[in-house]
Amino acid sequence: MDAAQAQDRDPMLLYEANGITVRGHLQFGLNAVSERNLFWNFSDTVAPGSGFDPDADWLEVYVKPGLSFEKSLDGGSVFYGKASAVGSYTFGTDAYDFGDTGRVTLEEAFLGFRTQPPEGLSFDVSFGPRELKLGTGMLIANGGSSGFERGALKFGPRKAWEMAAIGRISGSGFTGTAFYIDPNERPANDGKNELAGLDLRYDDPAGGYLGLTYVNVLKSQSPYIQAAPGGIGAPTILPGARDGTNALNLYAKANPFSGALENWVFSADLAYEWNDDIDLQAWAGRVQAAYTFTDLPWSPTLTYSYQTFSGDDPNTPELERFDPLYYEGSPSAWATGSKSSMVFINSNVQAHGLSLRLQPTRQDTVTLRYAHIRANELRSPIQFGQATRVDTTGGTANVIAGVTDAHLSDDLFLEYSRIINRNTFLTAGVSVSLPGEGIRNTVAGDVPNWTGGFINVVFNF
C-alpha cells in the first residue's frame, strides 16, 4: 500500500514510505460547568469581604495539536519522537475565582529509541517532555498543572512532565522502568521539584499485575505542614521539607478467578514515605473489590473501595502527614470524593467508596459513585492549613486547624458517558456533597449542600 492509499484510510497519517511514518494528532474539548454553594459556602463566613461568589457557571475549552514520527531501522529497532502543545481557556469565573484567562504551553517534545526483537529483552529509552504514569497513578501520574491562570480547571488537559528521561527493559511479562521527571508546574506555584526512581512490574498474560515503585525527591522547594503540639495553635510551615522525601508504592491486581470467584476482581495499593531530615514517616493504602453481574441486563459492576492517607498526629513530635505527590485525581482513579476532592488532597483523609457501573449499550455507560469521607487525625491539617480558626469549645479560646469531628462529607456523583463515534466522546454528570459534622462544626450557622453539574464533549484524532 502506498502513502496516498494510507492517507485515504487515515487522515492523520501524513506520510508513510521508506520506513518513515509521520502522523498528526489533534484533541480538543468543550466543558460547561455549573456549581452552587461552592465549598459549602464557607466564603460567607470566613471571607465575607472577599467578593467570592459561591455560585459559578463557566465554559472551558482546550486544543492539543501534535506531530509524531517513527523511523524503522535495521534489525527491527525504531527511532521515534513526538511534539505537541496545549492551548486552554476559561470563559467566565471558575471554582477558584479565576476566569477569562488561559495559556498556550508546550506539552510533549521527546525523542526515543526502542528495540523490538522477536524474543528476549526489549529496550526503550526516551528524553524530553512526555507523559509517564506508574502503577495505578497513586503517586506518579499527572505531570502537568492546569487551571488558575492556565484555564481549563476541570478538564486538566496537561499531563506531560516538563522534562522526563525514561528507560525501560521488558521481557517475559516483566518491565523495569528507570525515570527522572520534572513536573510542569504553574509559574505562580513552582516548587522546583525534581524526582527520580525505579518501577518494577510483572503483568500476567492471564490478567492481573504486581508492581513496586520507588521514588526519591532529588530537589524541592515545596513546603510541608505540621500540626501544632496537641492540636492547639496554628500549624507550622516547614519550607522546602519535601526535598529528600522517599516513597515506596506496592500495587497489585488479582488474576481472573475461576469457579465461584470468576466475576470478582481484587486490587490493592500500599505506600510508605520517609524523610530522615525532617523525621517523616507516613503511609497510605487502598483495597478494592469489584463484582460483575454477567447474567443481568446492562452487565452491572459493583465496586467497593477503601482508601486512607495518614495525617500528622498532633500528639507526636514526628511528622506523619502523607504527601500524595503527583497522583491521578479523577473520580475513577484516586480522587477522594467527587466534589470534596477539590478541597481535600490525599492527606489526612480516608474514604469508603461504592460505585455501580451500568452499560445499557456498547456506546453508553452510566456510573453512580458514593463516597463517605473522614479525617484520620483530628485537629491536624487536612489540606494545607485551611480551617485554621479560633475554637471556643468549653469556654476557652484556642487556635486550631483541621476538624474536631472525623466525618467530613458524603459525596454522590452520577455520570453518563457516550461514545458518539471513534473520535467523539460525550460525558455529563451531576453531583452533590453533603457536609459532615467535621465541616459543620468549623463555622457558625447552617452549612448548605454543595451541588453542581457539567457536560463536555471531547474530539480525539
Describe this structure in words.
By secondary structure, the protein is mainly beta. It has one domain (3-460): Porin, CATH 2.40.160.100. It is 3% helix and 50% strand. The chain is built from three helices and 23 strands. The chain has helices at residues 3-9, 43-46, 437-440; strands spanning 13-17, 20-36, 56-72, 78-93, 99-114, 122-127, 163-171, 174-182, 194-203, 209-219, 224-226, 236-238, 246-253, 264-275, 280-292, 301-309, 349-358, 364-375, 389-391, 398-400, 407-421, 424-435, 450-460. The protein has an 18-stranded antiparallel beta barrel. A hairpin with a 5-residue loop joins β17 (349-358) and β18. The longest helix is centred in the first third of the chain and has 7 residues, at 3-9. It is globular. Mean pLDDT is 92; it is low at 390-397.
How do the helices and strands line up, and which of them pair or pack?
Blueprint: H1 3-9, E1 13-17, E2 20-36, H2 43-46, E3 56-72, E4 78-93, E5 99-114, E6 122-127, E7 163-171, E8 174-182, E9 194-203, E10 209-219, E11 224-226, E12 236-238, E13 246-253, E14 264-275, E15 280-292, E16 301-309, E17 349-358, E18 364-375, E19 389-391, E20 398-400, E21 407-421, E22 424-435, H3 437-440, E23 450-460
Antiparallel strand pairs: 1-2, 2-3, 2-23, 3-4, 4-5, 5-6, 6-7, 7-8, 8-9, 9-10, 10-13, 11-12, 13-14, 14-15, 15-16, 16-17, 17-18, 18-21, 19-20, 21-22, 22-23
